[in-house]
Design goal:
mainly alpha
Length: 99
């Protein structure tokens, strides 16, 4: 990995959206709850919220390679978080304990 690629990787992973960290955490929590309903998990609300926050970070990072996620606003952040949380719940279901 060259220096330019490493710099771009770090820039993407640290880019904040226009909603800020608190908004991102709230969107992640709501996204985890929505993703838990969509995926019909039985992990529980707390786990779904944690998965939502982690999924929001993963979804935001992955989408940043294709779209400008920094200026997306609240609804785009929520959409990204739900998408990331659903993917993460799917992976947990695939490789983890049965939900």
């Amino acid at each position: 990995m060259n220096v330019l690629a490493a710099t771009e990787f770090l820039a993407r992973s640290s880019t904040l959206t226009s909603v800020g960290w608190i908004g991102y955490l709230v969107a992640g929590a709501v996204a985890g709850w929505i993703a838990g309903i969509v995926m019909k998990t039985k992990y529980g609300l707390v786990t779904d919220v944690v998965v939502g926050v982690v999924g929001a970070l993963i979804g935001g990072f992955l989408l940043s390679f294709f779209l400008d996620t920094a200026g997306g606003g609240w609804w785009f952040t929520l959409f990204t978080a739900v998408l990331g949380a659903i993917i993460l719940l799917w992976l947990l279901r695939l490789f983890g304990r049965k939900a």
